[in-house]
What we know:
By secondary structure, the chain is of the alpha/beta class. The chain has helices spanning 16-23, 32-45, 63-70, 81-89, 106-114, 125-137, 176-184, 206-224, 250-260, 274-277, 310-314, 404-409, and strands spanning 2-5, 8-11, 14-15, 27-31, 51-56, 75-78, 97-99, 119-122, 142-149, 171-172, 189-195, 231-233, 267-270, 281-292, 297-301, 320-322, 333-338, 347-354, 362-366, 387-391, 394-399. Helix 6 links the parallel strand 8 (119-122) and strand 9. Residues 159-163 have low confidence and may be disordered.
Amino acid sequence: MYSYINNQLHCENVDISKLSNEIGLPFYCYSSEILESKYSEIERAFNGKNLLTCYSLKANSNQSIIKTFASMGSGADVVSMGELKRALKAGIPNDKIVFSGVGKSLEEINFAITNNILMINVESISELMKISEQASILNQIAPISIRVNPDISAGDNEKISTGKKQDKFGISYQDILEVYELASSLDNIQIKGVDIHIGSQINNFEPFQEAFNCIAEVINKLKNKNIDIDIIDIGGGIGVNYTDEESLEINQYAQLIEKILEPLDKKIIIEPGRFLTAESGILVTSVIYIKETSDRNFLIVDAAMNDFIRPSLYGAKHKILPIKNFEMSKPENTYDVVGPVCETGDYFVKDYKTSKIEEGDLLAITCTGAYGSVLSSNYNSRPSIPEVLVKDKKFSLIRKKENIEEIIDQDALAEWL
């Protein structure tokens, strides 16, 4: 957890200011206590239910994060061979891994089949036929579920809403029965389940209720065609409280599932990512320059959009905490907190209010544990920043900082140069 002790921000019992002296700036910091407590919230909410939690690696794919959840019994939702290999290396059993995504390559399909994962979520007829062909070549049976696109709008951001008919994901609800009938006719395909995922950062129950009712209807129609399934994969999407929005209550979410889906007597898979990791992380950065103009005031920090792109990419809003706490002693000034990258979109927070700030002060951008480091890049030839995991009084460097020479050495000169 994050709290002030003697006016210094701490992650659990580690002083962030002292940590920055050892790690260097900027860096990501994660709390083991928060990671474990969020996973336990789900376990308590679904206590005694036939449920498998599959952590969605795309939120944060660091080996230490995955292993934290693996040690608590988690499975994994992966969307690439790289994520599948990360899940296996972190100790997640292959029969607890679900492979999602609209564009799986033949190499990825083969790797999933030969590693005997729980199931592959199919998103198109072409993909279904490719999986069947590869399974036949490998002389194996490929376990699959089929993703339904229910044409449901979810969340406030169209870039992370995935269940509308114009989106690239899944099979249209109107066509889903025909695709299941096709799948049932293929010798090397085993139908295990049905899958749905309508989006991310959803903070109201109505879209989930619509989606679960859609799935229940599909299952009943499949049963009438003598196509029985064992698993209902309902995806993720549970929203978190980034600023002052009202987030979903996990117990009510579990009750909704119990009401609509539990009577169907199937194993339920949920795929939380953001819910498990977002609140665990902060991005620690230092104020390089204070720039005040007649129109706007800026705090220019050493982190940049290549380190954390959510505000620029999604218009996402995050809170900022000073590492050193102080009492407001004079009227507040308002600043935009921006990075050094040569883009106007390189910002973290606009209209940040503070009455006391100096160059060299440290700030923490909160709730950066999800879609932070995983979306980072080397834009402007900036090295990726370190990541640290804290547990009580201990900390561990779980990803080292790149150096500029490593980035340059990835280039290869053309033979004529």
